[in-house]
Model the fold of this input.
Amino acid sequence: MDRARKSMFWKGVAECSGGDCQVAWDRACRSQEDGGLGVKDLYTQNLCLLLKFLHKVVTRDNAPWVR
Done:
């Protein structure tokens, strides 16, 4: 998924090679405050959302394992 997204971001086509990319993808995924472009890394975003969901499930007040 990231490969296709990176290719569309840089060239507007389904695939691009390293020479077509203007900036390294890991640098593009950095926040703008850290000198990146602020593009969200899908793996990290997915992991964060799963952990947020897990936290909500575990800390629910009305869950049987919390009482």
User: Anything to note?
Assistant: Residues 2-58 form one domain.
